[in-house]
């Protein structure tokens, strides 16, 4: 664990060089080290050459993925299983580059892109990657800039993608009126019950009463857990957040796991 160490360019260069041929280290935590794309280039080179590393934590840095390094690294490396890039500065250009790497990757199982800047435009590449990638199991995208349109496009990829088990879209600017559509592919069996998806997280996102009706309609044979924020009243005013949340956790467990 080398998190919060202020490694700097020289320190990170030396570390990655030493690990190029290391065959015993399985997890590397470099979170909170103020790493930019310049320093991340050393990490990308490591990924291209080290086939033993399974988990890489790069959260809470200043990585933008604008130089194509991570795209190339993910294209080369099929042994890394967990990549955490949450709390970085990945915006449209970096998101497009990163998703190209994901498109070519055949090893990642757990990808955390929370607290970045994935917008509707940059999600287009992600949707293409998810349609082709049949290895990724967990995808976390909370606290980005995606609308209901992008959220629906991602959910619809589950019609082809049978490997994803956990999808976290919480705390994105998804409007309440757009949430019922996210359940439609499940209701219509466009997403087969045999596919892997088990957990859809919409935490922090208000849902209308219609959403709850759709949840109740989900077939009993489907094992699906759906988490959501408060319930929006028909006039758009949110019902009491605190009192509802106290009930919600019970309802999710008892009623909305199908």
Question: In words, what does this structure look like?
Answer:
The N and C termini lie far apart (39 Å). The protein has one domain: Leucine-rich repeat, LRR (right-handed beta-alpha superhelix) (Alpha-Beta Horseshoe). Strands 1-2-3-4-5-6-7-8 form an 8-stranded parallel β-sheet. The protein has 258 residues and is an alpha/beta fold. The protein is elongated and about 60 Å long. Helix 1 packs parallel to helix 2 (37-49). It has helices at residues 8-19, 37-49, 69-76, 92-104, 123-132, 148-156, 184-187, 209-217, 241-254; strands at residues 27-29, 55-57, 82-84, 110-112, 138-140, 166-168, 199-202, 225-228. The model is unreliable at 239-255 (pLDDT under 50).
Head-to-tail CA distance between termini: 39 Å
Which architecture would the CATH scheme give at its second level?
Answer: Alpha-Beta Horseshoe
The overall pLDDT average reads 88
Going across the biggest sheet, name each strand in turn.
1-2-3-4-5-6-7-8
Radius of gyration, in angstroms, nearest whole number: 19 Å
Q: Give the tally of structural domains.
A: 1
Q: Tell me the number of helical segments per DSSP (H or I, 4 or more residues long).
A: 9
Q: CATH superfamily name? A: Ribonuclease Inhibitor
Structural class: alpha/beta
Uncertain stretches of 5 or more adjacent residues:
239-255
